[in-house]
TrEMBL record, chains A, B, C:
NCBIfam families: PRK09355.1. GO terms for molecular function: kinase activity. CDD domains: THZ_kinase. Keywords: ATP-binding, Kinase, Magnesium, Metal-binding, Nucleotide-binding, Thiamine biosynthesis, Transferase. Belongs to the Thz kinase family. ATP binds at residues 117, 170. Pathway: Cofactor biosynthesis; thiamine diphosphate biosynthesis; 4-methyl-5-(2-phosphoethyl)-thiazole from 5-(2-hydroxyethyl)-4-methylthiazole: step 1/1. It comes from Blautia hominis. This is Hydroxyethylthiazole kinase. Substrate binds at residues 41, 197. Its EC number is 2.7.1.50. Catalyzes the phosphorylation of the hydroxyl group of 4-methyl-5-beta-hydroxyethylthiazole (THZ). Coiled coil: none annotated. It catalyses: 5-(2-hydroxyethyl)-4-methylthiazole + ATP = 4-methyl-5-(2-phosphooxyethyl)-thiazole + ADP + H(+).
Amino acid sequence: MLGEILENVRSKSPLIQNITNYVTANDCANITLACGGSPTMSDGEEEAEEMGRLCDGLNINMGTLHPRSVKAMLLAGKSAGSCGHPIVLDPVGAGASTYRRKTAEQLLREIAFTAIRGNISEIKTIAGGGNSSKGVDADAADAVTDENLEKTITFAKDLSKKTGAVIAISGAIDIVTDKNHTYIIRNGNPVMAKITGCGCMLSSLAAAYLAANPDRRLEAVAAAVISMGLCGEKAFEKMESERRGNASCRNYLIDEVYHLTGSELERGAKYELR
Amino acid sequence: MLGEILENVRSKSPLIQNITNYVTANDCANITLACGGSPTMSDGEEEAEEMGRLCDGLNINMGTLHPRSVKAMLLAGKSAGSCGHPIVLDPVGAGASTYRRKTAEQLLREIAFTAIRGNISEIKTIAGGGNSSKGVDADAADAVTDENLEKTITFAKDLSKKTGAVIAISGAIDIVTDKNHTYIIRNGNPVMAKITGCGCMLSSLAAAYLAANPDRRLEAVAAAVISMGLCGEKAFEKMESERRGNASCRNYLIDEVYHLTGSELERGAKYELR
Amino acid sequence: MLGEILENVRSKSPLIQNITNYVTANDCANITLACGGSPTMSDGEEEAEEMGRLCDGLNINMGTLHPRSVKAMLLAGKSAGSCGHPIVLDPVGAGASTYRRKTAEQLLREIAFTAIRGNISEIKTIAGGGNSSKGVDADAADAVTDENLEKTITFAKDLSKKTGAVIAISGAIDIVTDKNHTYIIRNGNPVMAKITGCGCMLSSLAAAYLAANPDRRLEAVAAAVISMGLCGEKAFEKMESERRGNASCRNYLIDEVYHLTGSELERGAKYELR
């Protein structure tokens, strides 16, 4: 089933509109191409309504916010939503400033997101519970572990109920859940926290997977998370064997997505579905 | 002659002002350095007039438009034009939104471009004929083939007559033409459509080649297109032999431009001049 | 001592707020991660005051200026300054336009910088003396050589006295000085001038090194400059042995920072302290 989800992306080549930050936009575009999607990148409010309508999926990323891009997010989010296109929210650094927190609240109020993906600190901020964070990284005290796994799943399910969105929490253990079912995913590698934009790239990927698999939302997001983690593992191996560092590893990660097949994804996936 | 054009870029190191998008700006800067040019990147209207005047060549790219950058384009375009500096237009996604279409029209009305480079759907939009496109990629139905080659050349020549610009159409077959003569170029590799910004990078390259060869406009643009295609071929070979993907291929492409010599360019060029 | 400075960055993982350009932001974020820091990238005036307060160090880079980002720089600079956080200024292309020159003047008037890092032409512009420059590259006539070394050191010391900042001048010979002591550094490789953003990345690195070593300002900036030069040398060797070009070299440079140890830094450093 995971493999089929990826293959649908490659065969349908969905058009993914990314309203995203200027730091990782290039990597987001290249990973969207790597998985078989067709990216457009633009934060102009002048074309946001139209782009939201014409795309197959929309990815909204809060990495480098400004009032104009927020307007574009709202316009594109509403038009994409009214057309039934899936919409992903990546609340980058939601707890890092008051402006980000308030913007996240506004986006959640005005747009019906299909999926929300972030690290645990970002997702806690979204849920209104947490306000600790250090920049754009998760607070170590928040980390999802085997000890707090049950509690975190319950928290994520509740947030899914409240928002109607699939919730994806990235970390050493990844959680992807809707109100009923949960994927607990153990793919990935710690080096990914040393590559800027791994989260952003994953959100672009999730938008592409969702757009090509509109009727399997939970599975599509889980497949994106597993793809990213698996490709991160492979990229790390290549990095180690060639004595590279985080910059080359970023390229290898996208390279691995470029070559990933459905059957490899099936074989490499490490998850439990509850 | 192609080789001499490249060598002029390396010896003169022209200063190329790029008003471009935030997605591929880094790659555009690095490829400009790779070919021997000196890039400046800025979209501030506060300095646009001055930058247009002080540069040796100007590259205007519509990738991530907003009203401020459009003002910068108009100011820089006019000052560069009045100083006789070559100006390239890359109408990224010209048909993807009304805002882009209208902006392209305005730029063409107010600036005398030396060259216009885009995919076939973008160039058709520029010509006022086409309005089909899917995001920033060319519509498959528009693709230049051996079957419609004659018709496409006539179309491009007409557009060159109308605009006074060298017209470069990128695709499996590249066409570079003025009102009299046409280069039909068969360098390149399909992987280039899987690397974000190949078009953007080519436009930066064209601006550098033009700035260093102001009296040979058609040849300069053709040499840039051939250089890009040839380096794309070499990068693809390296990607394949090392089992990499599109992200590494992007680096290899710029690397190849860095090492390209005039004689290699002569030897590797696959074109017909009519 | 140099080694200890790097190790402090790795152990303390300072949060570095970068208000920087959209051309090299990704590389700046990845090199900050590579050295052990935690980068945030944002130019929103809406959150600038708060980000300046919450960070451990601030890096202000003039690469792609616009009035909104200038406001963010002023707000963040003041709040970071009032909290005692180190602040780096990278006056990219300070002499390339009137707008940049005036903005640099305003920033220097209103913010107490801990360090100012640029090429010789940029630093001369900052000092009010020079106005020759070609885009963002140093004017060849300005280059620091063994012949004009004494004069340049005196000039840089005077600027340090005037501004209270550590002055770092990048070039074939690097100078890092306060009003009393000077590091004359001979690490580095000419290929670094062919990689966009080497200066920007160094300034991000300097901000991280300063934030983790607040009581050794001169040494921290010198250690950052030496780290960058040494990693540039190693990256060049790798580039040559693998027949790559400037784009791969950029990745290798960041990779080398990722792996750099304190003892390697000590061993590879080529400098004289006066």
